[in-house]
Amino acid sequence: MKVRVNDVELDLEPGTSAIDAVFAAGYDVPYFCSQEYMSPIGACRLCLGKIGAPRKDRDTNDWIRDESGEPKIFYFPNLMATCTTAIMEGMVIDTLSQEVKRAQAGMMEFTLINHPLDCPVCDKGGACELQDRAYEYGEGVSRFQFDKRHQEKHHALSELITLDRERCIHCKRCVRYFEEVPGDEVLDFMERGGHTYIGTVDEGLPSPFTGNITDICPVGALLDATSRFRGRNWEYDHTRTTSPDDASGAAITVDARTGRIERIKAARNTQVNLDWIDDSTRFGHEYVDAPDRLKTPLVRRDGRLVPASWEEAAAFIRERLGALAGAPVGVVLRADATLEEGVAARALAAHLGGHAEHFPRPAASLISPNPATFTDVATSDALFVVGDPTEEVPTLDLRIKDALKGVAPPKLLPHGVPIADLRLKERMPRKREILTVAAPYRVSLARHAGETLIYPAGQEAALFEGVLAGDGEALGLEPERLRALKERLEAAQNPVIVLGAFVLASARATAAAQRLAAAVGAKVMKLGPMANSYGLEATGVTSPAGYAELLRGSRALFVSQLNPAKSAPLRAHLAELELLVVHESFPTETTELAHVVLPAKTGYEKEGTFVNLEGRYLGVHPAPVDGGLSEDFTGVVRALGEAFGTRLDGRSVRSARRVLNKALGFDLAALDPEGHLAPSEAPAGGAAAEDAEGATPEAEGAAPAGPRLLLTPSLIKLGRLSRNPKLHAAYGDPPLRLHPRAAAARSLTDGERVVVRAGGFSRDAVVRCDADLPEDLMLLGALFDQPVGLVTDVSVERAPEPLPLVDAEPVGAEPAGATEEITA
After folding, report:
1. DSSP state, 595?
2. Alpha-carbon distance 820 to 722, whole Å?
3. Residue 124 in 3-state DSSP?
4. Topology of domain 298-363+533-677, per CATH?
5. All structural domains of the chain with their residue ranges
6. DSSP 520-545
7. How many other C-beta atoms are found inside a 10 Å radius of the C-beta of residue 654?
8. Phi/psi of residue 237, each to 5°?
9. % helix / strand / coil in the chain, to the nearest 5?
10. How many angstroms separate the CA atoms of 37 and 30, rounded?
11. What local confidence, expressed as pLDDT, does residue 682 receive?
12. Is 436 helix (H, G, I), strand (E, B) or coil?
């Protein structure tokens, strides 16, 4: 459609909003209520424009023309909100006339009537839309002579979000966000008129995506409680990078000041996370600055770890390796190591005649012959999700909910993402019937699904085989439900099957899922356990024997940011090694056994590349954090290479990228901010892997007798909670979920603290009774580097009483024991 904005002629798609036409023409108009990826509502009335359009003669169906023969423009009697007005052929939009300027200034004056002059102390100062728009479009002088409205200024919506009600301008962005993006309707307007305020009926904000409202709030009303009053916007060093927290590859901005990470915000990636991140990604950074952070190398001398230089540590390692010439050597990385660190690990292992491996690594390959992207998910008309994406890859949860809207992702305009997408409506109905969710227990995404299948834990292969055969009796599921699911997938134009951690823990289940996908023509998305699981597998950081056997078969071992010693069986073997080099950021059970401890950078301090679950290569960039002498694994290899007197591949990020660029055919240093999609070819068969205790994580066949513990994915990175006190305060201790009758049989009550022992590990937890669970199944969140799946031989005991105060302890009394959470 042809449109004229002031003096600029445009040709735009039908359905484009007038406000987007204004920005596409290179002009500006103020607005507060509109927000990309959300419905336009015209609440703030700041984007007013003078709008007109030609009319057709009813008799001739031709344009009514003026004296010059041009179509005559008929203006609307009142100024129009450009965010809720769709363009039409021949439309004229005026945003520069004095009439428009006066109206915009008048609306700005109304907006500011009750707004406090908090700019000198407001966290939003320097990045405030109201501040900017008032300067650009306001009168500059206040005529308001009365007392302003006074409301609560420090209202804690949750442990993580603070609301200053005086600053709220009632734009309704936060309310619409919860309704339209995560689908958690937890905020709304209370009262009316000048007494209106934002509030919640329930205590807290029961959603894992609450922090996004602090990004979209146009004023300083909604604030990140963890960084409030920590600095002004211009005082932060802003670093765009890729989240190290999960396999989505979500774009984030890390704001650091004086060597500390103060806050993390969502950054836009239109192909991955849009403008949203989950709370664990946003608030889970506090561990980086924990007081027990390792910042200098340590070498064991006379039975004690003592500080040393990198050169001294490398020389110690060289001497030990010299005495072990020909002995088997292993190098293991955590699965959120960068591609460049993977190259360094392979180079070191090859130089020492050993193997490199990453962990955790599923039993099945993450590389699929028919991979799905986030856009495929968002445009799918039939989704079959097996697992719990809300806990595994929260970005995927939101993209699934995009699909339920039935609206394709918007096309980019000259100014980027549309400001007002008129296809989106407030409280628009969701197409729940296209979503089927299956899991061994009821997951949070199930309440948005048209169909939920609860199957016995460990029977994922039987589930897919049952859908293929239309027979679910062995699973306790009605056959007609499985047949209907297969028919929906077959009839769909863009079906997608999502495979979570429970499926990937079994090569047989994954193979059955691939057969189903091939039969119905579906694409497959596999949810890797960590930020670079896909990339490390694709670049060959794998060993034939698998993780546990590599550890057991080595006499010298390099362990990077893993804690295998938290497993009792592996701890005994590690204690007998001739050389144990641990590359770690914090003290762990494994550093206690190490001969050398090398300080490691965290994911926020690295330069490198991640490959997300789509096969998208994404840049990782370092924030200016005070990590002391910490290095990533390329730094480890550089120091060792100098000690060995050789130049190893991967001795620096640049060196590793030369190797990678040659293999990939593109330059990793020149990646687009939204990444480069280049899925790898699927392997001929699944990759073998073993869990931390050495047992292959297959869970097929008959369910074992006795109580069973299912380690489940966890949004909150368990094992780091002790170093994230603010996140810990918000989410509490990890729960052990079990049926009320199962709890009663163990004489346990809801809320009671217990110690869970199973499979060589011990964990603290809090009992949470859940009547929806089978009586023989308990659920416990896995640690962030621990495989999920069934564990048998489980014991649950009451936690010992905490240690009494010293001055209250009777003379001669035995001190009570205390059980601590094992951290990774």
Report:
1. S
2. 10
3. coil
4. Rossmann fold (3.40.50)
5. 2-112, 298-363+533-677, 374-393+428-526, 708-808
6. HT-EEEE--SSTTHHHHHHTT---SS
7. 11
8. -90, 120
9. 30, 20, 50
10. 18
11. 67
12. strand
Q: Which pairing describes strands 777-781 and 735-738: parallel, antiparallel, or unpaired?
A: antiparallel
- The pair of structure tokens assigned to 350 is 């090859």
The total of other beta-carbon atoms located within 10 Å of residue 124's CB is 23
User: What's the pTM?
Assistant: 0.91
Q: What is the DSSP letter of 384?
A: E
133 contact partners, CB below 8 Å, separation of at least 6: 30, 32, 46, 108
Which pair of tokens denotes residue 474? 């062995």
- Could you state, in chain order, the average pLDDT of each consecutive group of 10 residues for the chain (824 residues)? 95 96 97 96 95 90 85 93 96 96 95 92 93 92 86 92 95 95 91 86 86 96 94 95 96 97 97 96 94 96 96 96 90 97 97 95 94 97 97 97 94 95 92 97 95 95 95 90 96 97 96 96 96 96 92 95 90 94 96 97 97 97 97 97 94 96 95 92 49 40 64 80 83 90 91 87 90 90 84 85 47 37 34
Inter-residue contact 315 to 644 (CB < 8 Å): no
Spatial separation of the C-alpha atoms in residues 575 and 590, rounded to whole Å: 9
Distances (CA, A) of 716 to 14, 392, 504, 602: 43, 10, 21, 17
Q: For the chain, give the number of residues.
A: 824
Of 501, 390, 542, nearest to 786 (Cα)? 501
Comparing C-alpha atoms, which of 277, 190, 299 is closest to residue 594? 299
Alpha helices by DSSP H, listed for 646-703, are: 653-664
CB atoms within 10 A of CB 572: 11
DSSP H helix total and E strand total for the chain: 23, 36
Question: For residues 770 and 408, what is the distance between their CA atoms, to the nearest angstrom?
Answer: 37
Angle between helix axes 479-491 and 507-520 (nearest 10 degrees) is 60
CATH code of domain 2-112: 3.10.20.740
196 neighbors 189 (Cβ within 8 angstroms)? yes
Q: What is the largest CA-CA distance in the chain?
A: 108
* Distances from the Cα of 667 to the Cα of 519, 661, 662, angstroms: 37, 5, 9
Q: What is the DSSP letter of 193?
A: G
* Domain 708-808, classified CATH 3.30.420.10, yes or no: no
Beta-strand runs (E) in 125-173: 155-156, 161-163
Please report the sign of the dihedral spanned by the C-alpha atoms of residue 289, residue 290, residue 291, residue 295: negative
**Contact between 651 and 636 (Cβ < 8 Å):** no
Q: What's the CATH fold of domain 374-393+428-526?
A: Dimethylsulfoxide Reductase; domain 2 (3.40.228)
Lay out the sheet containing 795-798: strands in order across: 789-791, 708-712, 777-781, 735-738, 761-769, 753-758, 795-798
Q: What CA–CA distances, in Å, run from 389 to 453, 719, 782?
A: 15, 20, 15
Check residue 802 and give its pLDDT. Answer: 60
